[in-house]
Amino acid sequence: MKVYFAASIRGGRADISIYKQLIAYLSNNHEVLTEHIGDDSIIASGEVERTDKAIRDRDIQWIEEWDVMVAETTNPSLGVGYELAYAEHIGKPVIIIHRTNQSQLSAMIAGTDYFDSIYYYEEIKDAIGILEAQLGKEE
Amino acid sequence: MKVYFAASIRGGRADISIYKQLIAYLSNNHEVLTEHIGDDSIIASGEVERTDKAIRDRDIQWIEEWDVMVAETTNPSLGVGYELAYAEHIGKPVIIIHRTNQSQLSAMIAGTDYFDSIYYYEEIKDAIGILEAQLGKEE
């Protein structure tokens, strides 16, 4: 499957090691779009070689192509919130994973009926177990 | 006008004093929805007496009623990202204000053509000047 992985870039890069491990896991069996989210060279200022419009247009194109979106929502992010709403708008499946011991998920996301696949985890191995079970269902 | 003021709640409350000053200014001439964003008693865990669905449904109802959305985007927030996408989807006017010296605005927002009213500020008085000029135009 084509998996669009959404996570914070300019919202903060504190969780990059978690993103990297999740992307590495997903890449074993799927094509992962936006892999640059797990790229150490991408810092909180984002991709410096592209304009904002070029980044946005590329991401929207990827979103149109994806089969399922996996959003790691622990680190607050305007871009991920925007992408979640876009997914809802076009009816693409979304799996949300959120680390309970770090932050509380936005009520605008947790309270939206469309997002019925929200999973909370503490350890990375739990997150991988969730993705394994859920992506298995989608196939 | 009915102004929907969007800013971070669960994404972090570091900017609450700024939200309060902006809401106080807006309230002089407008009806401000989601005034609780400037309420000291609302901490990062959000509104504890309401379910997420109740918060989401109330906010969406307000969004349907508003004339213009003012989003303060400095503190990253999934909820604000979601609300910006919702505004774009239903075609409501949006004014985005962002403190340049604190964070960089998401490419997904800055790169979206619909959001053509993005203003950067450093001091609260500059933000108020921007709102005065822009809301004057909307009336």
Automatic annotation (TrEMBL), chains A, B:
<protein>
    <recommendedName>
        <fullName>Putative 2'-deoxynucleoside 5'-phosphate N-hydrolase 1</fullName>
        <ecNumber>3.2.2.-</ecNumber>
    </recommendedName>
</protein>
<dbReference type="Pfam" id="PF05014">
    <property type="entry name" value="Nuc_deoxyrib_tr"/>
</dbReference>
<keyword id="KW-0378">Hydrolase</keyword>
<keyword id="KW-0326">Glycosidase</keyword>
<dbReference type="GO" id="GO:0009159">
    <property type="term" value="P:deoxyribonucleoside monophosphate catabolic process"/>
</dbReference>
<dbReference type="GO" id="GO:0070694">
    <property type="term" value="F:5-hydroxymethyl-dUMP N-hydrolase activity"/>
</dbReference>
<feature type="binding site" description="in other chain">
    <location>
        <position position="83"/>
    </location>
    <ligand>
        <name>substrate</name>
    </ligand>
</feature>
<keyword id="KW-0546">Nucleotide metabolism</keyword>
<dbReference type="GO" id="GO:0009116">
    <property type="term" value="P:nucleoside metabolic process"/>
</dbReference>
<feature type="binding site">
    <location>
        <begin position="106"/>
        <end position="108"/>
    </location>
    <ligand>
        <name>substrate</name>
    </ligand>
</feature>
<dbReference type="InterPro" id="IPR028607">
    <property type="entry name" value="DNPH1"/>
</dbReference>
<dbReference type="InterPro" id="IPR007710">
    <property type="entry name" value="Nucleoside_deoxyribTrfase"/>
</dbReference>
<comment type="similarity">
    <text>Belongs to the 2'-deoxynucleoside 5'-phosphate N-hydrolase 1 family.</text>
</comment>
<feature type="binding site" description="in other chain">
    <location>
        <position position="19"/>
    </location>
    <ligand>
        <name>substrate</name>
    </ligand>
</feature>
<comment type="subunit">
    <text>Monomer and homodimer.</text>
</comment>
<keyword id="KW-0808">Transferase</keyword>
<dbReference type="GO" id="GO:0009117">
    <property type="term" value="P:nucleotide metabolic process"/>
</dbReference>
<comment type="function">
    <text>Catalyzes the cleavage of the N-glycosidic bond of deoxyribonucleoside 5'-monophosphates to yield deoxyribose 5-phosphate and a purine or pyrimidine base.</text>
</comment>
<dbReference type="GO" id="GO:0016740">
    <property type="term" value="F:transferase activity"/>
</dbReference>
<dbReference type="InterPro" id="IPR051239">
    <property type="entry name" value="2'-dNMP_N-hydrolase"/>
</dbReference>
